[in-house]
UniProtKB/TrEMBL annotation:
Major subcellular site: membrane
Family: Belongs to the CcmE/CycJ family.
GO molecular function: heme binding; metal ion binding
GO cellular component: plasma membrane
Underlying gene: ccmE
Membrane topology label: Single-pass type II membrane protein
UniProt keyword Oxidoreductase, yes or no: no
Source organism of the structure: Thalassorhabdomicrobium marinisediminis
Role this protein plays: Heme chaperone required for the biogenesis of c-type cytochromes. Transiently binds heme delivered by CcmC and transfers the heme to apo-cytochromes in a process facilitated by CcmF and CcmH.
InterPro entries xrefs: CcmE (IPR004329), CcmE-like_sf (IPR036127), NA-bd_OB-fold (IPR012340)
Entry protein name: Cytochrome c-type biogenesis protein CcmE
Length: 160
């Protein structure tokens, strides 16, 4: 009986070790661009990446910098309050994209301009989707009346 428990324990430990080795092997052989964190404009300006490197840049869209071109072409400036990087993009922008808002773009840094292939808009915790915001505006939300509040404002009963 004791040897059966010992054998099972060894089998389970062996399977666990094999799974860990397999996961580490998969992570080791993944391409370098599988792990993409965004860089700030300061990081891009201080150490410009190679033109062939696909990376993400993140920051705030500088106020007054959005310029729309023909069709879906748009250019703007992304900043982190210390440095700014011009961005060009040809595509449909997300609905949350606007000046003064956060964004993350994926693309390449070519000749001092970040040429984006994808733009993502970031929002803070106070964001409410337009559908939900419209629903709140259309419905009549009333705060429940406090019983103590109504009793205090009611006319006092007269005893006679």
């Amino acid at each position: 009986m004791r040897s059966l428990k010992k054998t099972r324990r060894i089998q389970i430990i062996s399977i666990a070790i094999a799974c860990i080795v397999a996961m580490l092997s998969v992570l080791w052989f993944l391409p370098d661009d599988s792990f993409q964190f965004f860089r700030s404009p300061t990081e891009v300006v201080d150490a410009p990446p190679a033109e062939s490197e696909l990376f993400r840049i993140g920051g705030m869209v500088q106020a007054g910098s959005i310029q729309r071109g023909q069709g879906t072409k748009v250019s703007f400036v992304v900043t982190d309050c210390y440095n700014a990087v011009p961005v060009s993009y040809d595509g449909i922008l997300p609905s949350l994209f606007e000046e003064g808002q956060g964004m993350v773009g994926q693309g390449r840094y070519i000749n001092g301009t970040f040429e984006a292939v994808e733009i993502l808009a970031k929002h803070d915790e106070t964001y409410m989707p337009a559908e939900v915001e419209n629903m709140h505006e259309q419905q009549n939300f009333c705060e429940p009346q406090d019983a103590a509040k109504t009793d205090a404002t009611a006319a006092p009963a007269t005893t006679g």
